[in-house]
Specification:
Largest sheet: 7 strands, mixed
Shape: globular
Strand order of the largest sheet: 1-3-2-4-5-6-7
Protein name: Muramidase
Number of helices: 5
Number of strands: 7
Structural class: alpha/beta
Strand content: 5-15%
Helix content: 25-40%
Distance between the termini: 15 Å
Order of helices and strands: EHEHEHEHEHEE
């Protein structure tokens, strides 16, 4: 779950959390977050063509953990992991099961690439509200909240002064994309076996997306989605600013855009 560009190229995300402990309660209008800041020692940035330090006999660019570490080093970031908006409150126990499944998937991914050293820097953040208002919010509303949060969060979490206009230039996706988990997504994941990473989905949202303003002639030239499909939240553009991603790959690299209702997968 990790980032160059989720919708244009590939996203990379931003410590070992215990999801049972890493549950933040935001009480509007003044959200209060607790962030883990582990020890961090900057390293020299390796090239993708350099030999992998984790897997003998292959280039660094072919090792997912090497690639993640390289993107973190380019931004001089300490942590990685997406922001997750909790948009369903029907069952706390189901939510905890889901968070544990997420964490185990990330751990397994890093283990495959001999990159468990990066697990200590994995700090996904769950945002939830006491009044459950996130349940009824649209993607556009959550995007506005996220963009306001990102401006100050990057300074607090990474101890860096970054112009808000330059957040999009970051290699890490923590402040450019977020995960939206509603009841539909939760059910799609928990209805499948633990080891089925393709059987459910989450909504991965591009925080930089803005709707295009096209006249009728431009709309006609571009065509549009299948008229039998219901436009996601009324948006008829090809790029609607978010997509459904297989839950097991939502914190991993190499994600390319697919218009909803298609669920994107890597393999």
């Amino acid at each position: 779950m990790i980032a160059r560009s989720v919708f244009r190229r590939r996203p990379y995300f931003s410590n070992k959390p215990s999801f049972l402990r890493l549950r933040f309660l935001i009480r509007p209008p003044a959200p209060r977050l607790v962030h883990i800041t582990p020890p961090f020692i900057p390293t020299q940035i390796a090239s993708r063509q350099d030999p992998s330090k984790r897997t003998l006999g292959i280039e660094s660019g072919m090792n997912g953990a090497d690639e993640l570490e390289r993107l973190l080093d380019k931004d001089n970031f300490k942590t990685w992991g997406f922001i997750i908006y909790r948009c369903t409150y029907q069952s706390d126990s189901d939510w905890e099961k889901l968070m544990i499944r997420f964490y185990k998937r990330v751990e397994k991914y890093l283990q495959y690439y001999n990159g468990l050293d990066l697990l200590a820097r994995f700090t996904p953040t769950v945002l939830e509200v006491e009044d459950r208002s996130f349940e009824s919010m649209t993607v556009a509303s959550l995007r506005d909240k996220f963009n306001k949060w990102a401006v100050t969060a990057v300074k607090e979490e990474q101890e860096q002064e970054i112009d808000p206009r330059h957040l999009w230039h970051l290699k890490n996706g923590r402040y450019r994309f977020f995960i939206m988990l509603d009841q539909e997504a939760l059910d799609s994941i928990l209805s499948t076996p633990d080891n089925d990473i393709y059987g459910g989905f989450v909504r991965l949202v591009n925080a930089e997306w803005k709707p295009e303003e096209l006249d009728e002639e431009e709309l006609a030239e571009r065509g549009g989605p299948d008229p039998e499909e219901e436009p996601p939240e009324g948006c008829t553009e090809e790029d609607v600013g978010w997509m459904k991603v297989c839950w097991g790959e939502s914190q991993t690299p190499d994600i390319y855009y697919s218009r909803p209702p298609v669920i994107q997968r890597l393999s």
